[in-house]
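Anyone up for a design puzzle?
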């Protein structure tokens, strides 16, 4: 008897024929992608390939000029960014963008503005301090005085306090020392092991491919390759063709 294939898991987040314009610049040209629950998916490509534009369109920071953004089965491209956050998305932006004149703890509290249960907020902040012990040692320190790596930890922690269904990370290794990149990605691996769904954009493909299940490689705003991250990791010809490495 022929065995039936297992049922396909519906995506938690997807785009269909997504386009983004900045004036006359066509930054994203028909990108279709999906992220399923529990996956780590990487968006890769050179600087200017359109990675951050896709991420910003997903969370509503730039409008989609054409196409669909679908979150948990609902079209959301017409929703404001705060409405998307309320539905279960969280975003750690490129460049971290922490509140420099607030303390570490106050920054984390800012991440919980959509959560009404104070006990739940406290428990989530404690989890962040467990994930990032450095933050736990610096609760009263102003965010502006943290190192770049510590600010990246804070940006991720602030997003996690919301208790999202999916965490979007835009260039989490950008500008960080190699030792700090290793710390950040080891923590992302632990976050993934706790069941969190992750979508991340990265210019440093070799780093992202260590934890990703699948990858989309962008070139000039279009998807040049999509498939298993292992294929890109293990096939030098693929890496050279799509990543120049």
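Challenge accepted. My sequence:
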């Amino acid at each position: 008897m022929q065995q039936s294939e297992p049922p396909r898991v519906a995506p938690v987040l997807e785009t269909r024929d997504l386009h983004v314009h900045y004036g006359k610049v066509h930054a994203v040209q028909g990108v279709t992608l999906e992220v399923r629950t529990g996956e780590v998916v990487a968006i890769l490509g050179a600087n200017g390939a359109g990675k951050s534009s896709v991420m910003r369109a997903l969370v509503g920071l730039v409008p989609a000029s054409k196409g669909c953004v679908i979150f948990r089965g609902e079209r959301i491209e017409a929703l404001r960014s705060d409405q998307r956050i309320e539905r279960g998305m969280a975003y750690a932006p490129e460049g971290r963008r922490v509140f420099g004149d607030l303390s570490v703890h106050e920054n984390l509290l800012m991440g919980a503005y959509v959560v009404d249960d104070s006990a739940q907020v406290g428990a989530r902040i404690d989890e962040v301090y467990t994930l990032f012990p450095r933050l736990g040692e610096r609760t009263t320190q102003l965010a502006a005085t943290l190192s770049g790596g510590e600010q990246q930890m804070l940006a991720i922690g602030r997003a996690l306090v919301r208790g999202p269904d999916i965490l979007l990370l835009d260039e989490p290794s950008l500008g960080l020392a190699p030792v700090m990149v290793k710390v950040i990605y080891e923590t992302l691996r632990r976050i993934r092991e706790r069941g969190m769904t992750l979508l991340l954009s990265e210019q440093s493909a070799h780093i992202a491919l260590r934890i990703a299940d699948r990858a989309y490689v962008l070139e000039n705003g279009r998807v040049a390759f999509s498939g298993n991250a292992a294929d890109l990791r293990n096939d030098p010809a693929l890496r050279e063709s799509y990543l120049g490495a």
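A detail worth pointing out: The mean pLDDT is 89.
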